[in-house]
Amino acid sequence: MWVWLHKFGSPKYFYNVSGKILPWVGGATVLLILVGLYLGLFASPADYQQRDSVRIMYIHVPSAWNSMFIYLVMAAAAAIGLIWNIKIADIAAAVSAPIGASFTFITLVTGSLWGKPMWGTWWEWDARLTSELILLFLYLGYIALQSAFEDRRTAARASAVLAIVGAVNVPIIYYSVQWWNTLHQPQSLGVGMSTIHASMLLPLLLMALGFKLLYVTLLLMRTRTEVLERERNSAWVQELAQALSGKSSSDQVRSSNEQR
Amino acid sequence: MSEAPGLFTALGVLIRRDLLLALRRRAQILNPLVFFVIVVTLFPLGLGPEPNLLQKLAPGVLWVAALLSAMLSLEAMFHSDFEDGSLEQLLLAPQPVFITVIAKVLTHWLLSGLPLLLLAPLLALWLHLSPDAIVVLLASLALGTPVLSLIGAIGVALTVGLRRGGVLLSLLVLPLYIPVLIMGAGAVDAAASGLAAGAHLSILGALLLLSLSLAPWAAGAALRISVE
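^ inputs. structure came back:
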């Protein structure tokens, strides 16, 4: 397994393998999200209490699940990079942060939009919304620390420590915020999803799976770009660039001739 | 070469050295405390002098001010040692980094947390807190401020090598302070409204033990990364 891990951890091998996987994952993502959106927005019934605004759920809940999930993946990848010195893990952790922050932001915006018709306010200091906001702060701190160092190796190692500390803290923050809220003002208007009908559950699960795969797709794409940038001076990237430019050089010659 | 000194000797020597250094630069100790007093003074000026309102807001105001002033003094924890190179020597010492971090955290707490503890009752009187609540405030600060120093040590250790680490430090550390703020202010709030504060204080104690066992380890790893 270690041999496999190190083989997969080498940038070149990763670049080649991920290039083959990417179209399949990307295709599955598009398919799942399209079917999920159709079922969620057109085929599923409106809630008898929340009417059509319940359909925000199909974006809100999957992004909320993703926002927490990505933080854990990021911390795990950062830890792997820190402990075993695997470059790909460092890169995966670094590029996961903006994706996770985006999902967190989407969760907050859709939660706010959903809160307006349901709770009557754009923002409620509800325990879940608040911990989601703090999660966004944690992501932003991670990104800020990452970009503060000039040396990439140091940046990766320092932010890995922060990610691990953050991962230990996430459950503590989550429960303390929950307790804080219930102590002050018990939430009477829950989102009421303890029981959910199959016609709503199916599109929700499809969307959740689609969003997970969307993360994988984005992760692979961004990691590939980052690999190319970081390894731009290595032989295999130079070869790749030459192969690509060799293909398109005839086009370039033609266009430059036309300009003249 | 004689044998390396024991862990507790090393700890004692380090703390004595840092306290001595701090006493020779007294402004560094006093400034965060003056800041604490000023911030607390600002709230009545901004909100109006109504006793009921101030009493209601006092736990939160005092704890937020304590959080901010603890954070202000954090940078001094490793900064001068990093500048003059003695931090590298400390990391090379035969004692584990753990000991260095514990010594630094203890010194920071003695210089920022403890004076805060002594000042807090006075400020609480300004904000019309009841005597019962003041006792709980002291207990919560006694349990909570070491956690602030411990978690802060990780943040300082991560940013010590950076030129402008100050704002970044607050960005990293403040979200991690939230549980302490919630439990600390919650304890005082409960006591002020006549409820038992034991649960809040127990959780603060748990946070203290957890951060005492994990934070020095993380801060040590961060120091090694920053210094290399």
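The mean pLDDT of chain B is 88. Chain B has one domain: 7-227.
thumbs up if we can close this ticket
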